[in-house]
Amino acid sequence: MGDDVVVSLDLSNYELLWPAELFASEGERILRASDSASDSSWVDRATWLITEALAGTTAVADFEELPDRDAPTDDPWASTTPGWGSRAGTGKRQWFTELVNRAGELRQAATPRPYWPQRRGRGLSRDGSTPRDTRRDFAQIISNFADNGYLAEVFGEECVDDPRDLPDASQVIDRRLGIPNLWPLAPETWDEDTFFGLIEVFHDLVSRPRTRRFHSWNMCGWHHSEFHNGPARVLYRSKVNELLREAGIDYELAAEGEDLGRLVSVTDDARNALVHRALTDSAPDITTRVRHAIALFRGRDTTVESKRSAIVTLAGILEERRALLKDKLGKDEGALFEIANRYDLRHRKADQRGDYDEAFLDWIFWWYLGTVELTNRLIASRTAG
Question: I need a labelling partner for 216 at 20 to 30 A (CA). Which of 21, 144, 177, 344 fits?
């Protein structure tokens, strides 16, 4: 940030509903866009961001109580009775700048510890003793997104001053999913395929409105504009993946790759990091094949055959880099290709072994993907040298 921050906010009363990185990114964008200290339009955007991203109304109230302009901290006329999150001489921009810069220090809003009925085995519990209605909870997530204008770009918004035909939301969903009459949401009617399909569809439909205005005539309500799907999808994945984890469902929405926004099998953090490096560090001509291999392997509908195809794709990349591997590994590089050639993976000959557990395919895939990432680093170091 270009602003010199000299205040020290008390963050103890603020809790984030968003991932810290997303809040910081959207906040930095607001600050960059407000070049002039006299430009007050940024205040509305900042207020909307704080309203969305932080729990409760405390932070918004603190922000709104501050003066529009920063005052010197030694100003004798500055207020001496600051609010919970403010200090004498602090203006809105200075306060908001520090809040954004210190986003990583904010606590994440947490579900309260179980109350008496939950501890006595009644009602919903977080420990699995009573099943949660995951479909209903997902419908509530979508309702919250809709209330905040995240579906207005595709579904439209009603206005008393502009009566017009809005898109039929059910048809919008039907065109993508091939299932009619899914809006308004009725989670009690969904089978598993419909539920998982809706999770993927809404990932592609949400879009965050960065501005809003209140239309008071006849209590028309909020109207939203300046949509961007990038931050909306980050937030959506965070909310939905948290729901799936709590429900014990071993899928998550992919954050990158050919299968972005599609449900994939959950892996550990180390393998997620490997996927990220393999996708971001590969040369352009390799990235497409790596993306395809990862999508084949980790998709919700993956099969033994698709896992074999994923391994074959990675083996082809390593075959092209065989000279590099031989140079670095010596005769041991042959072991990489012996598995692909002797087992029922690539050539599918009669004398090849096929009597192995599917877990063997998982092992080979991660081994080969790790080796692709290794060769990326070897190539990069050789280029740098």
Answer: 144
Strands 107-108 and 15-16, sheet pairing: parallel
Model pTM score: 0.83
Q: Calculate helix-pair angle for 20-33, 229-246, nearest 10 degrees.
A: 170
Average confidence (pLDDT) over 105-118: 82
Q: With bands split at pLDDT 50, 70 and 90, how would you rate the model's confidence at 130?
A: very low
Task: List 263's β-bridge partners, or say none.
Answer: 253
Cα separation, 227 vs 176, whole angstroms: 21
Cα separation, 373 vs 104, whole angstroms: 30
**d(Cα 174, Cα 188) in Å, to the nearest integer?**
18
Q: SS in 3 state form for 128-141?
A: CCCCCCHHHHHHHH
The confidence score (pLDDT) of residue 161 equals 85
Of residues 27, 53, 48, the one with CA closest to residue 235: 53
What angle is formed at CA 29 by the lines to CA 24 and CA 32, rounded to 5 degrees? 120
Long-range contacts of the stretch 141-145 (C-beta < 8 A, 24+): 141/239, 141/240, 141/243, 142/185, 142/202, 143/185, 145/202, 145/206, 145/232, 145/236
Q: Residue 68: what pLDDT?
A: 85
Q: Which amino acid makes up residue 241?
A: N
The predicted pLDDT at position 346 comes to 54
The CA distance from 297 to 295, in Å, is 5
Check residue 162 and give its pLDDT: 80
Classify burial at 376, counting beta carbons within 10 Å of its beta carbon; exposed 0-12, middle 13-18, buried 19 or more. buried
Distance CA 167, CA 157 (A): 10
Distance, in Å, from the CA atom of 248 to the CA atom of 259, rounded to the nearest integer, reads 22
Is the bond leading into 76 cis (omega within 30 degrees of zero)?
no
